[in-house]
Amino acid sequence: MEALLGKTLQELQDIAESVGLPRFAGKQLAQWLYVKRVSSFDGMSNISLQGRAALAAQYTIGRTAPVREAVSADGTRKYLFRLSTGEYIETVYIPESERATLCVSTQAGCKMGCRFCMTGTLGFHGHLQAADILNQILYFDDLTNVVFMGEGEPMDNPDNVLRSLHILTADYGCAWSPKRITVSTVGIPAMKRFLDESECHLAISMHNPFPKERTEIMPAEKLFSIAEVVALLKQYDWTHQRRVSFEYICWHGVNDSVEHEKALVRLLRGLPCRVNLIRFHAGVDRTFPASDEQRMIQMRDSLTSKGLTTTIRTSRGEDISAACGMLVAEQQA
Question: How many CA atoms lie within 13 A of 131 on its CB side?
Answer without folding.
Answer: 19
